[in-house]
Every structure is written in C-alpha cells, then in structure tokens.
Amino acid sequence: MDSKKNKVTIPVVYLQGSACSGCATSSLCTEYPSIKNILLQDIVPGFTLEFLFHPVIMTASGNLSMEVLEEVAKTKGFVLIVDGGIPTKDSGIYCVTGEKNGKKSTILQEVLQLSPNALMVIALGTCASFGGIAAANPNPTGSKCIGDILSENNIKTPYINIPGCPPHPDWLFGTIENVLLNGLENVKLDDFNRPKTYFGKLIHENCPNRAWFDEGKFAKKFGDAGCLYELGCKGPITYADCPIRQWNGKTNWVIGSGAPCNGCTSPEYPDYVGDFYEKIIDVETPVNEKKI
To answer: Are 266 and 237 in contact (CB under 8 A)?
Structure first.
C-alpha cells in the first residue's frame, strides 16, 4: 500500500483462469460504487484501487502486460482477484495467462507466484470459489478452486470466496470496502469462506414466493402462479441475498422473472444440486399441496 496525500492506493491484480468472462463483466457493471469510482476515484473515502492487471479492460498485451505480473510478484500488499477455475492436469497447460521469456505461463503458475505476497486473495465466481462449471464432471483439465490450490501448496494467504454464476458486483466491491474500512480480520465468513453479509441467509427466507410455499401452492408448469419448488427451484438450499439485492439496478432477478433458482452460489453447483428443473427432495414441504 502506498499513501499519498492521506490517500491509500491498493494495487489490484485480476487474473482469469478457466472462465467465460461473465464474472468480470458482471463486476464491471457495478453501480454503487460506480465503475468510475472503482477505476478513477476513491472506492471509499481515502482508498483508491489501482488495477495493474485486468484481462478484460487493460490496454496492454503481450510482453508488456506480462512484465506487470513479474514486477508485482516482487512486491507485497496487493489484492489478488482470481476469476475462473485453475486447471492442474498436465502442469496446468489448459489455461495459459501469457508468455514469459518465450515460455507459456499458466494460470496455475501465476497464482502460485503471486498469492504468497498478496494482502488477500478473492476467489470471484463459483468456478474460482468451488470449482463450478470449470470443474464439473468429468473435469478433463483437473480444474480446482482457489482454496484447494492454496491449501495443497501450503500458502497461508487469507482468501475470501465470492461465488455466483455470475456474482453480483456488490458482493465483490462491498467485500473490498468492508476489508478496507474494518480490516480483513473483521469480515465475518461462513464455513465456506463466503461473506455472511451477502451469503448469510437462504434465498428461501426472503423469497416473494415463500407464502405460496408455506401454503403448499406449487406451480406445476412454467407460467403458473405458485412457488417454483416443484420446477426445480434451489432457493431452499441456496445462500445468497438475490431477493433483496436483485440485478441490473434492481430491475429483476431469476425468480422474479419466473425462472427457478439454480443454486449457483452453492459449493455443489452444478453437479450436485440436481438438474436445473428437477425438484430437490431433501426439503420439508407443507402436506396440503395444491395445484393452482
């Protein structure tokens, strides 16, 4: 961290592994703070983020961009954000960040080189947090999540998981703000290293369809009125604040648009939360089910 005129600049390195750029794009759609605040002004009073490396928005490429990573690796106190899974099979060759000295440098190598000196590592999105789609069966690239990579290599840098496919921008930047204002040690995490502020309650607890669930009124086909539980909704087992936060300037969200929650913030996503439109069976439901 460098302090200039009572302001603290936090260097940030954003890496992409086996990813679709959905997490990066979603995070860039932040509204409060705005992307202008994030990139050009203070994220919170007195703190500025300086994105040294970001594959989606940086203008540098080739050797020029890779030199940045080499220089950052010599420093300490930066925030490392990783989006996407980390392939490990065949030395991680299935996801290459760039070239150094004429040789391919994989995302696995970059994470192992950068994470020991980072202030913290943020695993952004479900692939980075838990494996997600990148590590889905049969996982031919041996993709793993950040937590596993750090643990297996005895890297003690603290990390925070911010799952979602994609995650809401508030979850990322709100967490960074919390760390800057209150300290990393005061950010309350659940058993899966997710911030309790955003992942502390089930979607089911705040769902506008909850009254229908409690009355046993379940939609039997899309377009019906009623709770979407029988159409595969994973809200009863999924932790996130989507019902109250919503998306695109609170325009809408998955269940609000008539689709069931697919459980994308869960550690088991996508392989073990069930098919998207398959009813989960380990949830107690009212006995007076009604077709409406």
So the answer is: yes
Structure-token pair, residue 109: 């190598």
Q: What ranges make up the beta strands (E) of 145-207? A: 159-162
- The bridge status of strand 47-53 relative to strand 7-16 is parallel
Q: Which residues contact 216 (CB under 8 A, 6 or more apart)?
A: 285, 286, 287, 288, 289, 290
Q: How many residues does the chain have?
A: 292
Sign of the C-alpha dihedral computed for residues 178, 202, 168 and 37 taken in this order: negative
pTM: 0.92
**Nearest C-alpha neighbor of 194 from the set 111, 269, 141, 114:** 269
Rounded average pLDDT over 43-72: 92
Q: How far is Cα 17 from Cα 220, in angstroms, rounded to an integer?
A: 39
Query: Average pLDDT, whole number, for the chain?
Result: 92
**Is the distance from CB of 121 to CB of 13 less than 8 angstroms?**
no
Report the C-alpha gap between 42 and 55 in whole angstroms: 22
Domains of the chain, earliest start first:
2-197 (3.40.50.700), 201-292 (4.10.480.10)
User: Could you give the 3-state DSSP secondary structure of residue 247?
Assistant: strand
Q: Does residue 3 carry a pLDDT above 50?
A: no
Find all residues with CB under 8 Å of 149, minimum gap 6, and list them.
86, 88, 108, 111, 112, 115, 155
Here the tokens at position 127 are: 């692939």
- Could you identify the residue written with the tokens 């950068």? 114
Q: In this predicted model, what pLDDT tens digit does every residue of 134-166 receive, in sequence order? A: 999 999 999 999 999 999 999 999 999 999 999
> Directed axis angle between helix 107-114 and helix 62-72, to 10°?
30
| DSSP assignments along 255-281, one per residue | GGGT-----TTSTTTTTTS--TTSPPS
Read off the DSSP letter of residue 93.
T
